[in-house]
Write a structure and sequence with these properties.
4 helices
């Protein structure tokens, strides 16, 4: 939630720069994307190794609705944390050391599979 508030607060100071540098149209496009796809972006960022904090700040800056932001965050982060905790509980110390090596790769593979599935079925 702190990243969301940072983005929401910082945009008022950054927006004049976006206008002067000619990036305001790109910012407005990002606002539209977050309005349409923000929940899914936050959910995926919470579950995969994509830097989650960047998405929280961008969500606040783009004015994403707070309730979908919170729900997407809870689901995405919850799935990741419970998956890792469950695997460590099940596999013990041996799996824990292996998991630390492979967790990011598994996250990227999951993201690629989700995007591929979306592109195929959309």
């Amino acid at each position: 939630l702190l990243g969301y508030v940072i983005g929401m607060t910082a945009i008022q100071y950054v927006e004049p720069w976006l206008v002067s540098l000619g990036y305001i149209d790109a910012y407005h496009l990002a606002e539209q994307w977050f309005a349409q796809w923000g929940f899914w972006a936050i959910l995926l960022a919470g579950f995969t190794p994509i830097p989650y904090k960047i998405f929280t700040i961008a969500s606040g800056a783009a004015g994403m609705a707070l309730v979908p932001f919170i729900i997407g965050s809870v689901i995405g982060r919850g799935m990741r944390f419970f998956l890792v905790a469950g695997l460590m509980q099940w596999g013990g110390t041996r799996l824990e050391s292996t998991l630390h090596i492979w967790i990011d790769r598994m996250g990227w593979a999951t993201l690629i599979l989700l995007i591929t599935g979306y592109l195929i079925f959309a």
